[in-house]
Amino acid sequence: MSVMATFEHKLRELIIKLHEIEVLKFGMFKMKVGIDSPVYFDMRSVVSYPEIMEEVAELLWEFAIKDKTYDELCGVPYAALPIATLISSRSKIPMLIRRKEAKKYGTKKLVEGKFNPHDKCVIIEDVVTSGSSILETVRDLRSEGLDVTSTVVVVDREQGGKYNLSQQGITMHSLCTLSQVGGYDLASTKGTIMKNIYYTFYLINTSNGSECLLQILQILKEAGRVTQETVDNVKKYLAASQIRPDGSFIVTPPPSGYNLSYITDEDMSNKISQFIKITGVINVFKSSHVQIHTRLKTHIDIVEDFSPQVIQELLDAAQQHNFLLLEDRKFADIGHAVCLQYSKGTHKISSWADLVTVHPVPGENVLTGLKSVVGDLKRGCFLVVEMSSAGNLNTPNYISSSMEMCDKHLDFVAGVVCQTPAAVRYPGLVQLTPGVRLECKNDGDLGQQYNSPDDVILSRGADVAVVGRGITLATDPIQVAKEYRAKLWTAYQKRIGSLK
User: Fold this and answer.
1) How confident is the model at residue 394 (pLDDT cuts 50, 70, 90)?
2) Least confident range of 116-130, 148-162, 251-265, 295-309
3) What is the structure's pLDDT at 84?
4) Cα gap 435→449, rounded to integer Å
5) Residue 19 — very low, low, confident or very high, per pLDDT cuts 50/70/90?
6) DSSP letter string over 276-336?
7) Any idea where the Orotidine 5'-phosphate decarboxylase domain is (predicted)?
8) d(CA 288, CA 142)
9) Residues contacting residue 101 through CB under 8 Å, at least 6 positions apart
10) Which residue, 135, 107, 110, is CA-closest to 245?
């Protein structure tokens, strides 16, 4: 057996052992960034298995350190410290310890150990998601004059860490990846949105020449430890869950084109978009959209003065000011019926609405019916899995079944309408939450329950907040719209800041 074959055999055995001792787990786990993940690594518990920890250190050394020249090595606190210690002992390369905060007494050092300016230091890490922990370590080591350009990690979760590190001049070498999604068969994915997701991910994970070896999911599947369904679910999750170092998500655009920039690095007004609900008074919208840069939500069937001219005015304004039209139709019928409701009749919704809302209650046929009207998938929808009305019948089982429907139609479903972040399985889906008002908690006997901007963003996890009567019934809609935008954006900044 060749040296490389022996190495790969050892790595395969290690991956299976990590699964056996539950360092590597599959299920549904809440992550630090606030979302659920179908896979979780807890490398801290490996310290209870010294033989396995030694194997990890030996493989990292053999893989990416022994043939390189480094003056020091530094483990990212805290999980990687024992592994770094073992590598240092084996290699005789001096070790540095980077504190999470400087001592307030004695030398007040942030980096412990002996080193000289311009020494070459390699960083050791266990698991990489966004790469933020490594970048914090890089920052502190570089502040001491050390030369840091490489990191060696056990597992790359493939959620943007490799790309984020490369942007700061750090090359990442990983023993293994979860699934190497970049190698996923694009031809097997249906619909333009999923192909775009996987293609984008492929570019991110092959653009910087970093090394990686085996795929964890493939090894465990071959060993009979996980099913193909688990493999597919994790791949889908990874493709939709790229994360920046600050904890925010790099969200792939929904199927309705590429102009739904609800979370981008552009101007503040694009960060949190409020859909203004019009009820026939289109002039309110026309007088305010330039200042507030809205995405417009319509209830076209209650516009009293409807005519084809109304649609043309909306389309002209949308093109001129680069916003989307969301028709809140809430389709909820058999496939054939919604196909006609979407494309025929007085309103001909499919001819102008970029997005529509859909109730999942009829089952998958409601989505297949709508999709049959727009074969090129240049339209999309929001699935209504939770409502803000009092006494609604959205049970946990209904929500779960609705999300299973959503998962099968990610080429058409751009997001979900819901009231809680737990309903959204993948960050690539936009969470649209209605019922936002600065004042008033309900509208009497009509069922609407309102929430404040802080509550809807910080507690309920909204990416897009729906503000309707709070603006349209205001004495000064333009000024009130600006106030909503400011409060929602402040809340969003606070939420993202808490994830860093």
Assistant:
1) confident
2) 251-265
3) 96
4) 6
5) very high
6) EEESS-HHHHHTTHHHH--EEEE-GGG-TT--HHHHHHHHHHHHHHT--EEEEEEE-S-HH
7) 275-484
8) 49
9) 110
10) 135
Q: What is the dihedral of CA 104, 105, 111, 113, to 10 degrees?
A: -170
Residue environment code for 322-332, b if the CB has 16+ CB neighbours within 10 A, otherwise e:
ebbbbbbbebb
Written as six digits, the tokens of 160 are 């943007």
Selection from 193, 203, 195, 204 nearest residue 244 by Cα: 204
Q: Tokens representing 269? A: 């007004």
CA distance 352 to 73: 59
Return the structure tokens found at 6: 């022996």
- List CB contacts of 240: < 8 A, sequence separation 6 or more: 197, 251, 252, 410, 426, 427, 428, 429
Lookup: tokens for 325: 């039209």
End-to-end, the C-alpha distance of the chain in Å comes to 46
Q: 118 and 145 in contact (C-beta within 8 Å)?
A: yes
C-alpha 301/C-alpha 307 separation (Å) is: 11
**pLDDT for res 197:** 34
Tracing tokens 């502040």 back to the chain, one arrives at 143
Pairing of strands 36-41, 24-30: antiparallel
Read off the pTM.
0.56
- Determine the Cα–Cα distance for residues 294 and 270; give it in Å rounded to an integer: 8
Collapsed DSSP state (helix, strand, coil) of residue 409: coil
- Catalytically active residues are 330
Q: What single-letter DSSP state applies at residue 149?
A: E
**Residues 192 and 374 sit within 8 Å (Cβ to Cβ):** no
Query: What is the residue type of 284?
Result: V
- State the number of CA atoms in the 13 A half-sphere of 66 facing the CB: 11
Question: 113-132 as b/e, with b when 16 or more CB fall inside 10 Å?
Answer: eebeeebebbbbbbbbbbbb
Considering Cα of 130, then 136, then 141, then 144, what sign does the dihedral take? Answer: positive
Residues 6+ apart with CB under 8 A from 139: none
Say if residues 465 and 453 touch (Cβ distance below 8 Å). Answer: yes
Tell the residue number behind the tokens 């025929």, with chain if given.
344
Rounded-to-integer distance, Cα 495 and Cα 499, Å: 7
Tokens of 203: 């570019």
> What is the spatial distance between Cα 213 and Cα 388, in angstroms, rounded to a whole number?
48
Element holding 228 (H helix, E strand): helix 228-239
What does the chain come to in residues?
500
Euclidean distance between CA atoms 241 and 424, whole angstroms:
12
How much of the chain, in percent, has pLDDT values that exceed 90? Answer: 34
DSSP one-letter code for 184: S
390 CB-near residues (< 8 Å, 6+ apart): 442, 447, 448, 449
8 A C-beta contact, residue 90 and residue 62: no
